[in-house]
Amino acid sequence: MADMKFCFSQDESAQQFVALQGCEPWGALQTGMGRFAAESPLARVHRYGGGSDEEPAFALTAAEPNQTLCTVIPQADSAPSQTVYAVRDGSGRFIGRIIHGRSPLGVRQEWRVEDGDKQCSAVARKGNIRGWLAYWVASPFWGILALIFLLNGDLHPSGSLWSKPHRARWRVRSGSGKGKVGIDFQNGRYRAAAGVLDVNLVYAQAVLYGE
Asked: Which residues cross the membrane (predicted)?
């Protein structure tokens, strides 16, 4: 079974579908990185109304037929320093949870995916060490770069010039320590190892982590 490669798109074209009742179109998970193919997404994302941007609640549906794959709901009893999302399949069965908090040193964001039986978990921290070093080394020059762009008439330079490192690898935790990479995110693209994590947990984590 081959690894799965996909991206999460929130382009306008990826939101052209009829959302579930009480929801709004929020994007789609699709193979490749090109133009969104409305007829062939892996899953469509329906965001529930009344949620916050920091703690969104949403459902994933298959493209055809329009059946619910899973729902992702933030839990009210989460600790102050973290957000816990419960993930349930289309029948309402609990299949796992996704935990968003901070690393032990409190420096980086941490994401943890756990299956329903807590037999498997995968942990990632936002950005790698090399990326963060480059980010902090370059930060004193941002003002100069911004001035150069303004002088050249570019009022909206690319956000990627000063965005924080976004690379992430979800490594499976086992009794002997770190295991294989379950999910790898780089340059807007996800790669999920076959058979490591429930595919709906992978999809839910991708939507939460973003583009």
From this structure: 132-151
Check pLDDT > 60 for residue 170.
yes
pTM value? 0.82
Say how many domains are in the chain.
1
List all residues 6 or more positions away from 66 whose beta carbon is below 8 Å from its beta carbon. Answer: none
Q: Is residue 142 part of a domain?
A: no
Residue 165 lies in a domain: no
- DSSP assignment of 53-83: SSS--EEEE-SSS--EEEEEEE-TT--TT-E
Q: Is residue 163 part of a domain?
A: no
Domain range for 15: 4-123+186-209
Q: How confident is the model at residue 114 (pLDDT cuts 50, 70, 90)?
A: very high
Q: What percent of the chain has pLDDT over 70?
A: 75
In a domain, 145, yes or no: no
Beta bridge mates, 59:
46, 71
Cα–Cα distance measured from residue 205 to residue 123, given in angstroms and rounded to the nearest whole number? 11
SS3 of the chain: helix, strand, coil, percent, to 5: 20, 40, 45
- Identify the CATH number of the domain in which residue 107 sits: 2.40.128
